[in-house]
Amino acid sequence: MKEIKKVGVLGGGLMGSGIAQVSAAAGFPTTVREVSDALCAKSRQSIEKSLAKGIERGKTTEAARDRTLKNLRFVTDLNQLADSDLFIEAVVEDLAVKNGLWSQLNGIASPDAIFASNTSSLTIIAMAAASGRPDRMLGLHFFNPVPSMKLVEVVRTITTSEETEQRAIEFVRALGKEPIRAKDSSGFVVNLLLIPYMLDAIKALESNVAALLNLLDLRYTGSSPAGLILAGDKTLTKKVLAFHGIQSAKFATMYRGQSDWVGDISFPLLVKPPQEDASLGITQKSVVNDVKELLDVISSTQREYQSPVLVEEFIDGREFYVGVIGNSKVEALPIVELDFSKFPAGLPKIASWEAKWGDDGDEKGAQFEGTQSIFPTDLPEDLATKIQQVAIDSFQALRLRDYARIDIRVTPEGEVYVIEANPNCYLEQKSEFARAAQKSGLGYPALIARIVELASARYAR
User: Fold this and answer.
1) How far apart are CA 193 and CA 152, in angstroms?
2) Is 191 a catalytic residue?
3) 309: helix, coil or strand?
4) CA distances (Å), 216 to each of 19, 26, 221, 458, 460, in order?
5) DSSP symbols for 428-444
6) Of all helices (H) and strands (E), which one includes residue 305?
7) Beta strand 318-326 pairing with 309-313
8) 141 catalytic, yes or no?
9) How far apart are CA 274 and CA 309, in angstroms?
């Protein structure tokens, strides 16, 4: 197996310059080919700027910068790449342009040189024939920004030889990157995961997005996948809280006639999908008072959401939202109450979809107009302290981090029940969380800075 010693990069744009930088930094003499001297100069300037930032942030040294730049050269003539052992293409996502380059290179490069495309949307097999060396053609998909992103997809086609794949994997590891094998389909592994999550972001489990960010070694604020999973499934949330001695409404879970968990519950009951947020699936019909109503709502909820149904005792009482912020030192923000004093008479006082967003999501309607978020002034100090401590205990039991909002109901007898945990809750300036922070003396810019600071401290360890 011939060792890769010299690298040729086709295209010096954002991705090409990044690939060239990490290749040269790893000790490989690297030649970047662009179509004009001006673009060559721009590519070099981009790399110099990146290295300067690295020095400023303590990620590299001046000596390492000098070695990297010494390993780089920039050309406009394809023939000057002829002695490369590996060619990495990072030009425009146009199959005809790419194939034209491969065809030209096949007559220039040595017979055992490897061709690799950095494409993120085209299949590699579509370039294999034009390359003239389908057994030595594969994909090396880097991620932006290349110097800091650890993951590289190694894309093998049905014609790629095992030796070619192995040489490519060893090269990726020599760059200090983490290779992951991927099948040859548009989008490969990460984009096939990422795009559906982006398009389906509202309904997708946040835990999947957080897990993907972990995989890509990207920094982010808010809870980890573990915390998001525990809080994202209301049934699981209740089980975890119960283990820690934190009270929530008695419940049962049901799906297509089967009971997964059945507690000793009694009417009235609240029926809702366990993995939705923002009050999706919660209407006035969700509160049921007899078996017929219960079965009807279970059936309609299962049909709409294609998931098990959470059935819990309806806790009649006041509803409070408690923001929690911190990690090693956790604090509860001032309590916000959802005031139902102007709610339509005769309706169960619940934060239904209509109450939260309006009858048609337009912030209009009797339920929406009948509720408002206020700072309560009549809570006894001991009860307020108890509510805030329950919120903190829930935050820690569910392994949340940075910030979250815990929704609580308190009965006329003073019993405190956790209704829901909301990691990564809404942070708009008019949200309950931001208003509570403002009430505590933490203005909106300071709040956002504090959350970023909490996340940054984790990555600094």
Assistant:
1) 15
2) yes
3) strand
4) 17, 20, 15, 17, 17
5) -TTSHHHHHHHHTT--H
6) helix 291-305
7) unpaired
8) yes
9) 6
Q: For the stretch 314-345, what's the b/e string if a residue is b when 16 or more beta carbons lie within 10 angstroms of its beta carbon?
A: bbebbbbbbbbbbeeebebbbbbbbbbeebee
Catalytic residue among 17, 46, 118, 141: 141
Residue 114 pairs in a beta bridge with 86
Q: Which of 34, 89, 153, 313 is catalytic?
A: 153
Whether residue 118 lies in the annotated active site = no
| Residue type (1 letter), 3 | E
Enter the DSSP assignment of 307: S
CA distances from 104 to 17, 97, 215 (A): 22, 11, 37
What is the full DSSP assignment across 80-125?
GGTT-SEEEE---S-HHHHHHHHHHHHTTS-TT-EEEE--SSS-SH
Count Cβ atoms below 10 Å from residue 277 Cβ, excluding itself.
Answer: 19
Least-confidence region, from 84-93, 218-227, 324-333: 218-227
Instruction: Give the phi and the psi of residue 266 in degrees, each rounded to 5.
Output: -140, 155
Query: What distances in angstroms separate CA 423 from CA 197, 374, 440, one per listed residue?
Result: 18, 21, 20
pTM above 0.70, yes or no: no
Taking alpha carbons only, the member of 27, 178, 184 closest to residue 116 is 184
CB-side neighbour CA atoms (13 Å) of 298: 21
**Peptide bond between residue 145 and the one before it cis (omega within 30 degrees of 0):** yes
Over residues 75-134, the pLDDT tens digits come to: 999 999 999 999 999 999 889 999 999 999 999 999 999 999 998 778 898 898 889 999
pLDDT band at 143 (very low <50, low <70, confident <90, very high): confident
Q: By the 8 A CB rule, do 149 and 142 touch? A: yes
Among residues 418, 385, 2, the alpha carbon closest in space to that of 237 is found at 418
CB 398 within 8 A of CB 240: yes
Question: Which residue did the predictor score with more confidence, 243 or 212?
Answer: 243
Write down the H helix ranges in 370-413: 381-397
Domains, in order of start, for the chain: 7-192 (3.40.50.720), 250-314 (3.30.1490.20)
Query: Cβ contacts of residue 19 below 8 Å, gap of 6+?
Result: 9, 88, 90, 118, 142, 146
Q: Which two tokens stand for residue 222?
A: 């808010």
Query: CA–CA distance from 131 to each of 103, 106, 111, 135 (Å)?
Result: 5, 6, 11, 10
Catalytic residue among 43, 50, 84, 191: 191
Instruction: Compute the C-alpha angle 455/22/18, nearest 5°.
Output: 75
Q: Is 224 a catalytic residue?
A: no
What is the residue-wise DSSP string for 313-334?
A: E---SEEEEEEEEESSSEEEPP
